[in-house]
Amino acid sequence: MSLKSERRGIHVDQSELLCKKGCGYYGNSAWQGFCSKCWREEYQKARQRQIQEDWELAERLQREEEEAFASSQSSQGAQALTFSKFEGKKTNEKSRKVTTVKKFFSASSRGGPKKEIPEAKAAGPSINRQASLETDRASTEFIEFLKTFHRTGQEIYKQTKSFLEVMHHKRELSIEEQSEGVQDFYQNVAERLQTRGKVPPEKMEKVMDQIEKYVMTRLYKYVFCPETTDDEKKDLAVQKRIRALHWVTPQMLCVPVNEEIPEVSDMVVKAITDIIEMDSKRVPRDKLACITKCSKHIFNAIKITKNEPASADDFLPTLIYIVLKGNPPRLQSNIQYITRFCNPSRLMTGEDGYYFTNLCCAVAFIEKLDAQSLNLSQEDFDRYMSGQTSPKKQESEPWAPDACLGVKQMYKNLDLLSQLNERQERLMSQAKKLEKDLIDWTDGIAKEVQDIVEKYPLDLKPPSQPLAAIDSENVENDKLPPPLQPQVYAG
Amino acid sequence: MALVEGNTQPESASQQPYVFKVVLLGSSSVGKSSLAFRLIKNDFKDILPTLGCAFFTQMMELDGSALKLEIWDTAGQEKYHSVCHLYFRGANAAILVYDIADKDSFHRAQNWWKELENEFQPEEIVVILVGNKTDLEDSREVTLEEGKAFAESKKLLFVETSAKLNYQVTEAFIAVARELLRREEQNGGQSRQRSPPVDLKETARARKVKCCQD
User: Fold this and answer.
1) What ipTM did this prediction achieve?
2) Which residues of A touch B202 (CB under 8 A)?
3) Yes or no, beta carbons of A364 and B83 under 8 Å apart
4) Does A301 touch chain B (CB under 8 A)?
5) Distance (Å) from the C-alpha of residue A196 to the closest C-alpha of chain B?
6) Which domains, from first to last, does chain B contain?
7) What is this structure's pTM?
8) What does the DSSP assignment read for B105-153?
9) What is the pLDDT of residue A419?
10) Which of the listed CATH numbers 1.10.10.1100, 3.20.20.70, 1.10.246.120, 3.40.50.150 matches domain A133-223?
């Protein structure tokens, strides 16, 4: 469906909306741009052609197989020869496919064989080539593996081939029916191998694995997350859910893993890598192997932390935590694909089955997860979910313990900055206060002075006379005895 | 009826051993893992599980038949109760563990039983009720009679064990194995297979209905 939206993005040309055949009706992208009528015609034609090709290919391969078997009986060297011939044929096969795709791209008509259409649309020629390389490698391996079984191997090959043809015609059926088809096939082949092929029981598993690998590598692109289901919608829902739960800490889930121990955090990283890698595998069994690898790393992490073997009580929460941290792509699609197309005995029993079941539990738990399951109050849970606050702030450690050094440093710096900011503000306010104090002080002094001045008004008295007369001629002249007067005594 | 070394295939039985899936159910800290741990520890005195005892297999030979018990431990915390039915798929036996010194765990074992009852037909699964921790006799909260009464009313196997003292642990597993074998013979091997075929299809369909849809 993402492909569709991609296509929509490219599709801006008005003429593209019309039927490719130019009949005048509108086309539909679901019909490769044809109108319903032309599409039906083209599709029938393409299908016939494809069936023809497949038959020819099957016959040719079988002929060669038989030749190879015959010559392998005669001599070693001959076998090597036929095999290289076979490989040569394989490459021819490959280039034939590629040219078909090229032809398809250059041709104005979009009526290429149906088989090629989705690939070309989906991925473009380069990825398609890679995919077909992988398919070819799978075929080569499969054929080589079957050689060890001689006639039985031939039988298996024939059955598998004809089954793939049948599946090719079932492509329009619902995914459940296709899954049933594959499961029936596994069962029939297993039965036939045991009764007719006389394959010893201990080898059965290996043979079934190879068959599964071969079949599912070929079917993968048609049956993984098919458009007829809502798998993709579910994928997106889970992805969104996990993103919304980004704030969940190991403590909330009671995860018995201490990521401060370098070895443990290393295991956690490996486990996350494994679970993410699952999406890149094509064969259900390889996907299961990724889950198992991931689980082993989790057990290791728990064991290092707790110093004792982990139990399921420890394992499930940790797996949930890993899924939340890793947010593996297309989780639901992968689970559905494995459930539909893996040999069911492997899912219900065996170690792989155990870990797969745990993963299903983890996903189911994440979907249902609520405040109670994290030991939080409903209000806190709602607040965290809405992204208003993050619980991490309230903890002593404000960053996730596993965050990279740069991030840690950044948080530290931010902390420092905010502290500095605080101090600066304090300083500013203190300074302001000081200023105010100073102003107040001067004002106070001024007021005090004023008061005093008012209380004791300045009395400007006229300068006192005596003082003023100091220098005058008649200083205290009154008090002084009168100047002696000359007196006449004889007189 | 001796336990056979786990990694060597029993020589006596030329055919593939019967494979049975056994789920361990019970609250956390009732000793599910310890029981499992004790079983393997008993058998392999030196070789302890390298990683954990959440999943392991135990080979047994009982009355001349080779058996392979696949023991699935489950998370016992209350919060995982709602998803645990996923473990039941394809199980042949269930071991319901409770702690005799914890009444609550006994009630939870009863809840597990209800859960099993919903998923399975009565004859479809062998269930054993195990009262663990008889070493805590002093603080016993669930009497032997209570346990027995419940087991009898639901037609379950019953045993009291002590994983710590290794009391009746192997016996519990052997009781399960014997019952499994008895049913197997009763059905003439019709209902179950030794290796993939026969009921593949049924399980595949059943799986489709139940699996991961919720």
Assistant:
1) 0.81
2) none
3) yes
4) no
5) 14
6) 16-186 (3.40.50.300)
7) 0.65
8) HHHHHHHHHHHHHHHS-GGG-EEEEEEE-GGGGGG--S-HHHHHHHHHH
9) 93
10) 1.10.246.120
